[in-house]
Protein backbone atom coordinates (compact mmCIF):
# COMPACT_ATOMS: atom_id res chain seq x y z
CA UNK A 1 0.00 0.00 0.00
CA UNK A 2 1.23 3.49 -0.84
CA UNK A 3 1.98 5.34 2.39
CA UNK A 4 3.92 8.46 1.42
CA UNK A 5 1.18 10.71 0.23
CA UNK A 6 0.21 14.28 -0.55
CA UNK A 7 -3.31 15.75 -0.76
CA UNK A 8 -3.57 18.82 -2.98
CA UNK A 9 -6.51 21.09 -3.76
CA UNK A 10 -7.98 24.56 -3.34
CA UNK A 11 -8.99 25.90 0.11
CA UNK A 12 -12.13 24.13 1.25
CA UNK A 13 -11.72 21.21 -1.16
CA UNK A 14 -11.67 18.87 1.83
CA UNK A 15 -7.94 18.10 2.08
CA UNK A 16 -8.02 18.24 5.88
CA UNK A 17 -11.31 16.35 6.13
CA UNK A 18 -10.19 13.53 3.86
CA UNK A 19 -6.64 13.39 5.23
CA UNK A 20 -8.03 12.93 8.76
CA UNK A 21 -10.25 10.05 7.70
CA UNK A 22 -7.51 8.39 5.65
CA UNK A 23 -4.84 8.63 8.34
CA UNK A 24 -7.20 7.26 11.01
CA UNK A 25 -8.18 4.30 8.86
CA UNK A 26 -4.69 3.45 7.57
CA UNK A 27 -2.55 4.52 10.53
CA UNK A 28 -0.49 7.21 8.80
CA UNK A 29 0.98 10.37 10.33
CA UNK A 30 -1.17 13.35 9.32
CA UNK A 31 1.04 16.37 8.63
CA UNK A 32 -1.23 19.38 8.13
CA UNK A 33 0.69 22.64 7.86
CA UNK A 34 -2.57 24.53 8.47
CA UNK A 35 -3.16 22.68 11.78
CA UNK A 36 0.50 22.99 12.82
CA UNK A 37 0.41 26.73 12.12
CA UNK A 38 -2.86 27.12 14.05
CA UNK A 39 -1.19 25.29 17.01
CA UNK A 40 1.66 27.81 16.80
CA UNK A 41 -0.89 30.66 16.79
CA UNK A 42 -2.70 29.26 19.86
CA UNK A 43 0.60 28.94 21.72
CA UNK A 44 0.89 32.75 21.53
CA UNK A 45 4.56 32.56 20.44
CA UNK A 46 6.17 35.40 18.49
CA UNK A 47 6.13 33.21 15.37
CA UNK A 48 2.48 32.39 15.99
CA UNK A 49 1.51 36.05 16.25
CA UNK A 50 3.30 36.75 12.95
CA UNK A 51 1.69 33.71 11.29
CA UNK A 52 -1.83 34.71 12.46
CA UNK A 53 -1.57 38.10 10.75
CA UNK A 54 -0.65 36.46 7.46
CA UNK A 55 -3.22 33.64 7.69
CA UNK A 56 -6.03 36.06 8.52
CA UNK A 57 -5.35 37.84 5.22
CA UNK A 58 -5.38 34.52 3.32
CA UNK A 59 -1.72 34.87 2.33
CA UNK A 60 0.94 32.16 2.54
CA UNK A 61 3.13 32.04 5.64
CA UNK A 62 6.89 32.20 4.91
CA UNK A 63 8.44 29.14 3.30
CA UNK A 64 11.19 29.01 5.94
CA UNK A 65 8.74 28.75 8.83
CA UNK A 66 6.59 26.10 7.15
CA UNK A 67 9.64 24.12 6.08
CA UNK A 68 11.14 24.02 9.54
CA UNK A 69 7.84 22.73 10.91
CA UNK A 70 7.52 20.00 8.27
CA UNK A 71 11.16 18.98 8.44
CA UNK A 72 11.00 18.43 12.20
CA UNK A 73 7.92 16.24 11.82
CA UNK A 74 9.10 14.22 8.82
CA UNK A 75 12.44 13.41 10.43
CA UNK A 76 10.60 11.89 13.38
CA UNK A 77 7.98 9.83 11.62
CA UNK A 78 8.34 6.07 11.90
CA UNK A 79 5.33 5.05 9.85
CA UNK A 80 3.92 6.34 6.59
CA UNK A 81 2.82 9.97 6.28
CA UNK A 82 0.29 12.16 4.53
CA UNK A 83 1.09 15.79 3.74
CA UNK A 84 -1.99 18.05 3.80
CA UNK A 85 -1.63 21.66 2.63
CA UNK A 86 2.10 21.39 1.93
CA UNK A 87 3.74 22.14 -0.45
CA UNK A 88 1.79 25.21 -1.52
CA UNK A 89 4.21 26.73 -4.04
CA UNK A 90 7.05 25.67 -6.33
CA UNK A 91 9.75 26.65 -3.84
CA UNK A 92 8.17 24.50 -1.08
CA UNK A 93 7.87 21.62 -3.57
CA UNK A 94 11.55 21.73 -4.45
CA UNK A 95 12.55 21.93 -0.77
CA UNK A 96 10.32 18.95 -0.08
CA UNK A 97 11.93 16.98 -2.88
CA UNK A 98 15.40 17.60 -1.43
CA UNK A 99 14.24 16.69 2.07
CA UNK A 100 12.62 13.44 0.90
CA UNK A 101 15.78 12.54 -1.00
CA UNK A 102 17.82 13.11 2.14
CA UNK A 103 15.62 10.77 4.19
CA UNK A 104 15.21 8.36 1.29
CA UNK A 105 11.40 8.40 1.35
CA UNK A 106 10.16 9.46 -2.09
CA UNK A 107 6.60 10.70 -2.53
CA UNK A 108 4.45 7.85 -3.88
CA UNK A 109 1.15 9.49 -4.80
CA UNK A 110 -0.53 12.88 -5.01
CA UNK A 111 -4.32 13.15 -4.72
CA UNK A 112 -5.77 16.30 -6.27
CA UNK A 113 -9.25 17.05 -4.87
CA UNK A 114 -10.94 19.01 -7.65
CA UNK A 115 -13.82 21.14 -6.35
CA UNK A 116 -15.81 23.96 -7.98
CA UNK A 117 -15.51 27.49 -6.58
CA UNK A 118 -19.18 27.76 -5.54
CA UNK A 119 -18.84 24.61 -3.37
CA UNK A 120 -15.59 25.92 -1.85
CA UNK A 121 -17.03 29.30 -0.93
CA UNK A 122 -20.21 27.79 0.55
CA UNK A 123 -18.30 25.22 2.66
CA UNK A 124 -15.82 27.76 4.02
CA UNK A 125 -18.50 30.32 4.87
CA UNK A 126 -20.42 27.59 6.70
CA UNK A 127 -17.29 26.54 8.61
CA UNK A 128 -16.67 30.15 9.71
CA UNK A 129 -13.06 29.89 10.89
CA UNK A 130 -11.29 33.22 11.48
CA UNK A 131 -9.90 33.18 7.91
CA UNK A 132 -13.25 32.09 6.40
CA UNK A 133 -14.87 35.38 5.37
CA UNK A 134 -15.72 36.18 1.78
CA UNK A 135 -12.94 38.66 1.06
CA UNK A 136 -10.23 36.44 2.55
CA UNK A 137 -11.62 33.34 0.80
CA UNK A 138 -11.42 35.12 -2.56
CA UNK A 139 -7.79 36.02 -1.84
CA UNK A 140 -7.01 32.40 -0.83
CA UNK A 141 -8.51 31.15 -4.10
CA UNK A 142 -6.44 33.68 -6.06
CA UNK A 143 -3.26 32.60 -4.28
CA UNK A 144 -4.11 28.95 -4.90
CA UNK A 145 -4.42 29.63 -8.64
CA UNK A 146 -1.22 31.67 -8.82
CA UNK A 147 1.09 29.84 -6.45
CA UNK A 148 -0.22 26.33 -5.76
CA UNK A 149 -1.85 25.20 -9.01
CA UNK A 150 1.50 24.99 -10.91
CA UNK A 151 2.19 21.94 -8.71
CA UNK A 152 -0.54 20.07 -10.60
CA UNK A 153 1.61 20.15 -13.72
CA UNK A 154 4.73 19.23 -11.80
CA UNK A 155 3.26 16.07 -10.26
CA UNK A 156 1.37 15.14 -13.43
CA UNK A 157 4.71 15.11 -15.27
CA UNK A 158 6.14 12.86 -12.55
CA UNK A 159 3.24 10.46 -13.22
CA UNK A 160 2.11 10.32 -9.58
CA UNK A 161 -1.00 12.59 -9.59
CA UNK A 162 -4.58 11.29 -9.46
CA UNK A 163 -7.50 13.72 -9.77
CA UNK A 164 -10.61 13.09 -7.65
CA UNK A 165 -14.03 14.75 -7.92
CA UNK A 166 -14.47 16.77 -4.71
CA UNK A 167 -18.00 18.02 -5.54
CA UNK A 168 -19.64 15.18 -3.66
CA UNK A 169 -20.47 13.98 -0.14
CA UNK A 170 -17.55 13.31 2.22
CA UNK A 171 -17.98 9.50 2.14
CA UNK A 172 -18.23 9.44 -1.66
CA UNK A 173 -15.02 11.47 -2.02
CA UNK A 174 -13.34 9.17 0.51
CA UNK A 175 -14.25 6.04 -1.49
CA UNK A 176 -12.80 7.60 -4.64
CA UNK A 177 -9.55 8.33 -2.81
CA UNK A 178 -9.34 4.78 -1.47
CA UNK A 179 -9.92 3.43 -4.96
CA UNK A 180 -7.22 5.68 -6.43
CA UNK A 181 -4.69 4.63 -3.80
CA UNK A 182 -5.70 0.98 -3.58
P1 LIG B 1 -5.39 24.96 5.57
O1 LIG B 1 -5.52 24.69 7.01
O2 LIG B 1 -4.54 24.02 4.76
O3 LIG B 1 -6.93 24.94 5.07
P2 LIG B 1 -7.72 25.00 3.74
O4 LIG B 1 -6.88 24.80 2.52
O5 LIG B 1 -8.46 26.31 3.80
O6 LIG B 1 -8.87 23.87 3.82
P3 LIG B 1 -9.05 22.31 3.48
O7 LIG B 1 -8.99 21.98 2.01
O8 LIG B 1 -8.16 21.49 4.35
O9 LIG B 1 -10.60 22.16 3.86
P4 LIG B 1 -11.33 21.27 4.96
O10 LIG B 1 -11.12 19.81 4.78
O11 LIG B 1 -11.00 21.85 6.30
O12 LIG B 1 -4.83 26.45 5.30
C1 LIG B 1 -5.18 27.61 6.05
C2 LIG B 1 -4.12 28.71 5.94
O13 LIG B 1 -2.86 28.27 6.55
C3 LIG B 1 -3.69 29.13 4.53
O14 LIG B 1 -4.57 30.08 3.96
C4 LIG B 1 -2.26 29.72 4.79
O15 LIG B 1 -2.32 31.03 5.29
C5 LIG B 1 -1.71 28.82 5.89
N1 LIG B 1 -0.88 27.70 5.35
C6 LIG B 1 -1.19 26.37 5.45
N2 LIG B 1 -0.24 25.62 4.85
C7 LIG B 1 0.70 26.50 4.37
C8 LIG B 1 1.91 26.34 3.64
N3 LIG B 1 2.36 25.13 3.27
N4 LIG B 1 2.62 27.45 3.30
C9 LIG B 1 2.20 28.66 3.67
N5 LIG B 1 1.05 28.89 4.34
C10 LIG B 1 0.29 27.82 4.69
O16 LIG B 1 -12.86 21.55 4.58
C11 LIG B 1 -13.46 22.83 4.67
C12 LIG B 1 -14.91 22.71 5.15
O17 LIG B 1 -15.68 21.98 4.20
C13 LIG B 1 -15.06 21.96 6.48
O18 LIG B 1 -16.01 22.62 7.26
C14 LIG B 1 -15.55 20.56 6.07
O19 LIG B 1 -16.37 19.95 7.05
C15 LIG B 1 -16.34 20.87 4.81
N6 LIG B 1 -16.28 19.78 3.83
C16 LIG B 1 -15.15 19.10 3.46
N7 LIG B 1 -15.46 18.18 2.51
C17 LIG B 1 -16.81 18.31 2.26
C18 LIG B 1 -17.72 17.65 1.37
N8 LIG B 1 -17.32 16.67 0.54
N9 LIG B 1 -19.02 18.04 1.38
C19 LIG B 1 -19.44 19.03 2.22
N10 LIG B 1 -18.64 19.67 3.09
C20 LIG B 1 -17.33 19.33 3.11
From TrEMBL:
Assembly mode: Monomer.
Pfam families linked: ADK
Alphabetized UniProt keyword annotations: ATP-binding, Cytoplasm, Kinase, Nucleotide biosynthesis, Nucleotide-binding, Transferase
Region described as NMP: spans on this chain: 32-61
Role of this protein: Catalyzes the reversible transfer of the terminal phosphate group between ATP and AMP. Plays an important role in cellular energy homeostasis and in adenine nucleotide metabolism.
Pathway in which the depicted protein is active: Purine metabolism; AMP biosynthesis via salvage pathway; AMP from ADP: step 1/1
Catalytic activity, EC: 2.7.4.3
Binding sites annotated in the UniProt record for AMP: 33, 38, 59-61, 85-88, 92, 129, 140
GO cellular component terms given for this protein: cytoplasm
Family the UniProt entry places it in: Belongs to the adenylate kinase family.
Descriptive protein name: Adenylate kinase
Chief subcellular location: cytoplasm
Biological processes per GO annotation: AMP salvage
Keyword hit for Repeat: no
CDD domains per record: ADK
Source organism: Prochlorococcus marinus XMU1408
InterPro entries named in the record: Adenylat/UMP-CMP_kin, Adenylat_kinase_CS, P-loop_NTPase
Catalytic activities: AMP + ATP = 2 ADP
Gene3D superfamilies: P-loop containing nucleotide triphosphate hydrolases (3.40.50.300)
Domain writeup: Consists of three domains, a large central CORE domain and two small peripheral domains, NMPbind and LID, which undergo movements during catalysis. The LID domain closes over the site of phosphoryl transfer upon ATP binding. Assembling and dissambling the active center during each catalytic cycle provides an effective means to prevent ATP hydrolysis.
Compartment(s) where it occurs, according to its Swiss-Prot or TrEMBL record: Cytoplasm
Domain of life: Bacteria
Chain positions recorded as ATP binding sites: 12-17, 127, 168
Top class in the EC scheme: transferase
GO MF annotation list: AMP kinase activity; ATP binding
Amino acid sequence: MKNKLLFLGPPGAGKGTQANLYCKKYGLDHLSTGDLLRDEVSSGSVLGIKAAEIMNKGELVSDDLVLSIVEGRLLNTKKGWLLDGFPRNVNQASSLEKLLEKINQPLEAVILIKTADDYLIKRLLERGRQDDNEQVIINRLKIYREKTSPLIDLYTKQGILEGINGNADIDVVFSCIEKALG
